[in-house]
Every structure is written in structure tokens, then in C-alpha cells.
Write a structure and sequence with these properties.
Layout lengths: L1 E5 L3 H18 L4 E5 L2 H8 L6 E5 L7 H10 L5 E6 L15 E4 L4 H16 L4 E6 L2 E6 L3 E7 L2 E6 L11 E5 L3 H12 L4 E5 L2 E4 L3 E4 L3 E4 L4 E3 L5 H16 L1
Parallel strand pairs: 1-2, 1-3, 3-4, 4-5
Antiparallel strand pairs: 6-7, 8-9, 8-12, 9-10, 11-12, 13-14, 14-15
């Protein structure tokens, strides 16, 4: 979940940035957030980067937040938008551009969490999905919910997050007899290259869930440790940095 904050007031922008980072760390560790002080800076970045949610101040220097969003909609961009305003009368204007919601200033963590959760649920229906089949039953899971895959003997097990549950909640599992190589190809097809890597011959890991890299192990956002095989540290650390760099570009 990639979020952009467009807010000209430095104090409010930094407060929003801090609160969004706190929420992402708990609820969507694979996500990222960037902040912009005006519409022009956002447009420049948006030309090369896709966002899932925009937190937009109504009053911006130059083009207003409303004008900026109207311009995006005219170009066919349907990115979810939450307006931030200190004046209730502007709220109704948001319906013209199909705004997801609004927050009245000063934004608090509780109000912000509510709209972020709302956006997360909306995005869940659009996120890249992986189709799994077990016992003749098909089901879809969001690719970003997958933490890691572990191979024990001839059994490969996917461990993934429960929808709507905290990061440290028990994980769901899906087991099969497909090899790690087959799973790597399936996950790469669903998520793209560089998202899942193998730090060890028995593991595949979603880079977005990695919170720390040591010399001999990875630490995930929930504290789970995954070994790094001898000679793999440099490749793993480069892959993680490349993934993180891609998220902030």
C-alpha cells in the first residue's frame, strides 16, 4: 500500500507522516509513504510512481488539492483520495471527485487509522492475488499477505497473514508438494521480480515483510527469524535495498 501525503503545512505534514508510518508498521509493513508540500511536486513524482492512496490538503499553494484531484480524474486516474480540511463545507465538494473520505484538521491517530483501514479494505479487492487449490476448493489470497514459504522435506508451506488481523496474529498456512523453484516462478509471475527472494535453500521471503537483515538471518515484521545461507548475505542485502528503493521512488 503506497501512500502519498500532499500537505503544505510542515508541522501537519510531518505529523501525518509519523502517524501513517506507525500505521503501516502495524497493519501493512510492505507499504510505503511519501510526502509532498504542493501539487506540482506530487505531479512530478506521480509521473514515475503509482500510489494507492492520496491524503490531500484542500488548501495548497498554486493548484488547490481539489483542482489537483479533478485533474487526475479527468485523465482517468481513480486512485483513492482522502481530503484533509479544516472547514466542513469543503467536504461535500469531495463527492464530485469520488473521494473515499475526509479528515478534519487537526488529524488525530484514531481518525487517520479509520480512513487508512477503509482504504486498505477497498484496495484488497484490487491487489495482486494468488489462486490456491486444495481439496478441489479454489481460494484467492493477496500476494502482499504472504510472509514466507518454507520447505521441509518434500512439503512446501506458505505462511500468510489473516485479513484484518494485527501483524503479530497467528499466520494461516497452505501446504503443497511443489518445489521451491516452482513456487518462486508462481510468486514472481504474481508479484513481479525482486519481491520474493530465497535467502536459504529452504525459504522464500517477501522482501516487504523484512524489518532487519543480519549477517546470518532476516528478521520479519512479526519478529520471526529466517536464516541466510553462507555466501548469500550480499545478494540478499542488495535485493532488500533494491526493493526498498523501488518503494520510495
Amino acid at each position: 500500500m503506497n501512500i502519498a501525503i500532499i500537505e503544505d503545512d510542515k508541522i501537519q505534514r510531518e505529523a501525518l507522516l509519523s502517524m501513517v508510518r506507525d500505521w503501516l508498521a502495524r497493519e501493512a509493513p510492505t507499504g510505503s509513504v511519501r510526502d509532498f508540500e504542493d501539487a506540482e511536486r506530487f505531479r512530478f513524482a506521480h509521473a514515475a510512481e503509482a500510489f494507492d492512496l492520496l491524503l490531500v490538503d484542500i488548501h495548497l499553494p498554486g493548484a488547490s488539492g481539489m483542482e489537483m484531484v479533478e485533474s487526475l480524474r479527468e485523465k482517468g486516474n481513480e486512485t483513492a483520495v482522502v481530503f484533509i480540511t479544516g472547514e466542513k463545507e469543503f467536504v461535500f465538494q469531495g463527492y464530485k471527485v469520488s473521494a473515499l473520505d475526509y479528515i478534519l484538521k487537526p488529524a488525530g491517530q484514531k481518525e487517520l487509522n479509520a480512513v487508512l483501514e477503509k482504504a486498505k479494505k477497498q484496495l484488497a479487492t484490487k491487489a495482486p492475488m494468488l489462486i490456491l487449490e486444495q481439496g478441489g476448493i479454489l481460494k484467492e489470497i493477496p500476494v502482499d499477505a504472504i510472509r514466507y514459504l518454507e520447505v521441509l522435506g518434500h512439503v512446501s508451506t506458505l505462511f500468510y497473514s489473516q485479513p484484518g488481523k494485527p501483524v503479530d496474529a497467528p499466520l494461516l498456512e497452505f501446504s503443497s508438494r511443489e518445489s521451491l523453484q516452482v513456487w518462486q516462478e508462481r510468486l514472481e509471475e504474481a508479484a513481479g521480480k525482486g519481491v520474493f527472494i530465497s535467502p536459504h535453500r529452504s525459504f522464500l521471503v517477501h522482501m516487504g515483510w523484512v524489518s532487519r537483515i543480519g549477517r546470518d538471518e532476516l528478521k520479519l515484521a512479526d519478529g520471526f527469524l529466517i536464516p541466510i545461507a553462507r555466501g548469500r548475505w550480499e545478494a540478499v542485502s542488495k535485493a532488500w535495498l533494491a526493493y526498498r528503493w523501488e518503494q520510495v521512488q
